[in-house]
Amino acid sequence: MKDRQWTPGRKALYFIAIIWMLVVVPLSAVAAPYAAMVIDARTGEVLHSRNADTRLHPASLTKMMTLYIAFEAVERGEISLDTMVTVSRNAAAEPPSKLGLKAGQKIKLRYLIRAAAVKSANDAATAIGEAIEGSEAAFARRMNRTAKALGMTRTTFKNMHGLTESGHLSTARDMTTLGRHVLYDYPQYYNLFSRRSTHAGVREVANTNRRLLAAYKGADGIKTGYTRAAGFNLVASAERGNERIIATVFGGRSTAWRNARVAELLDMGFQRAPSRVALRKPDAPNYANVPRSAGKTIRVLTAVRKSLRPKLRPGQAEDPAPLIAEMQDDIQEALKEAQTAAAPAPVDVAVTPDADAPEKLETVALTTAAPTASITPRVRPRTIAKQALADAEQPEVVTRVSTSGGRHWGINVGRFGSRYQAEKVLLKTALIEMDTLDGSLRKVVKRSSGFDANFLGMTRETADLACRRLQARQVTCFMVGPPPS
Questions:
Q1: Quick check: helix, strand or coil at residue 51?
Q2: How far is CA 241 from CA 45, 196, 206, 345, 349, in A?
Q3: CB distance 334 to 392 below 8 Å
Q4: 73 and 132 Cβ atoms separated by less than 8 Å
Q5: pLDDT value, residue 325
Q6: Are residues 105 and 156 located together in one domain of the fold?
Q7: Are residues 196 and 298 in the same domain?
Q8: Which residues neighbour 27 within 8 Å (Cβ) at sequence distance 6 or greater?
Q9: Cα 144 from Cα 153, distance rounded (Å)
Q10: How many Å apart are CA 149 and CA 363, to the nearest integer?
């Protein structure tokens, strides 16, 4: 038997086999886990799920939350689309995919949003977070608060771009929830995700999801993601007629495989979803259930027991008839007696309560007293009325008062670029929510970054109710507490 000849072809096959055993097989063994979810976007009904609650690396799907908060900040008046953002060294140093921003460069927020949504630029996402919250850590905390308010129970964010970091994890279910909120909470910005390309201030950028947008009928978003640890991820949405489906894939093997699988899931969704169903938009973020720092406790060291009455002016003779009525249980009776005491001809009034009508006072006898010489008092009805009213309200003696007491609360409905815009929104809001805002004070407060539109002079309960009712109408609102004492 002849020895085998090591021809060049045989050697090549041998080396390919070795590479396959040493590289491809181990990589396939540790490939990112696969997870998927499909929902009817109109109702949130789950049509299909697989490993939907497994915590995995979201990669650039993270930018959906970064953009959601950016949209929220713009609508609240915290920042505007035309705000010039200075790019930090930290943002400029982010690895690709990136827009290519330089440290110290100034660029409008709107271009950063386009780059993050379409190009999935990491440097743009970091610049957005730093512009809104000042630092990556502060923005990550806001991302986590927002995630909890949206009901994303198994998500933890550590950065705003989605590059692999220990503990930065999410699930197919949570990302599907976030995609639905992006679609319905800020529909005015949703068209960004369907652009095949856009101008990002410094150059034209192409959409990372352009292949699916071009190949699948009705597809109009939302966000791709890829890292070595995550695999190929995608949250996609498509609309056909009255139906809209959202499908999410984690752990795809390649861009082509991911797109093909998402197309299958979208087809499944359109087959299973009813043709006609009532639209039930997702609830607004419930920040009330997100833990925040406790309100300050106001401690009253000395309680007022008695209102002090004004002393006579120096040199003024004391009037024989009292100018201020004695404090009584019924404030109306006190006012009547104050007016009687101030009249030129005083009369003696004897009254007895009627048993059938306790609130009615019946005059029994009126006897006119002879006028006597006296100094005519300086009658000040407004002062008397205010003093009588103050005296009639006995303050409750307490040693601790909660911040919910009193009409020291208010609500903020946004920050705007001009006083006119803020006043316009206040008037519009007051008209649509008259029940809870009636009697409140509309006030525009000038800040360094704009004009705050506030309703003040409310109790905590009324302010909370007003905010919840406004949020149900998709109106941005948050409570404003009393100033610290």
A1: coil
A2: 18, 22, 27, 85, 82
A3: yes
A4: yes
A5: 43
A6: yes
A7: no
A8: none
A9: 10
A10: 64
pLDDT for residue 383? 53
Taking only Cα atoms into account, the Rg of the chain, rounded to an integer number of angstroms, comes to 35
Distance separating alpha carbons of residues 71 and 182, to the nearest angstrom: 9
Give the pLDDT score at 386.
54
Report yes or no: 186 and 76 within 8 Å, Cβ to Cβ.
no
Read off the pTM: 0.58
Q: Are residues 155 and 46 in the same domain?
A: yes
Beta bridge partners of 39: 46, 246
Q: Pairing state of beta strands 243-252 and 231-240?
A: antiparallel
The pLDDT assigned to 288 comes to 83
Residues 275 and 389 in one domain: no
The answer on 299 and 226 residing in a single domain is no
- Residue 349: predicted pLDDT: 42
**Is residue 94 domain-shared with residue 147, that is, in the same domain?**
yes
Q: Which residue has the tokens 């103050």?
A: 390
Is there a single domain that holds both residue 393 and residue 258?
no
Q: Tally the C-alpha atoms within 13 A of residue 470's C-alpha that lie toward its C-beta.
A: 28
Any bridge partners for residue 204, and if so which?
199
DSSP character string of 117-168: III--HHHHHHHHHHHHSSHHHHHHHHHHHHHHTT-TT-B-S-SS----TT-
Biggest CA–CA distance in the chain, Å, is 153
> Is the domain of 394 the same as that of 272?
no
CB distance 158 to 164 below 8 Å: no
Q: How far apart are CA 312 and CA 306, in angstroms?
A: 18
Q: What does the pLDDT read at residue 431? A: 86
Q: Contacts by 379-383 with C-beta closer than 8 Å and gap 24+? A: 379/323, 379/342, 381/339, 381/342
Q: Give the catalytic positions in this structure.
A: 60, 63, 120
Q: Which of 197, 215, 219, 218 lies closest to 206 in space, CA to CA?
A: 197
What secondary structure, in 3-state letters, does 155-189 show?
Answer: CECCCCCCCCCCCCEECHHHHHHHHHHHHHHCCCC
Which of the residues in the chain have pLDDT under 50? Answer: 1-3, 24-30, 293-302, 320-331, 334, 338, 341-372, 384, 388, 392-405
Q: What gap in Å lies between CA 395 and CA 306, rounded to an integer?
A: 8
Q: What single-letter amino acid sits at 116? A: A
Confidence at residue 285, expressed as pLDDT on a 0 to 100 scale: 92
CATH code where residue 173 lies: 3.40.710.10
Q: For 336-352, write each residue's pLDDT tens digit.
A: 554 554 444 444 444 44
**Nearest-angstrom CA–CA distance, 234 and 251:** 9
- The boundaries of the domain holding residue 429 are 294-303+384-485
Quickly tell me which residue has 């791709």 as its tokens.
Answer: 224
Q: Considering its fold, how many domains does the chain have in total?
A: 2
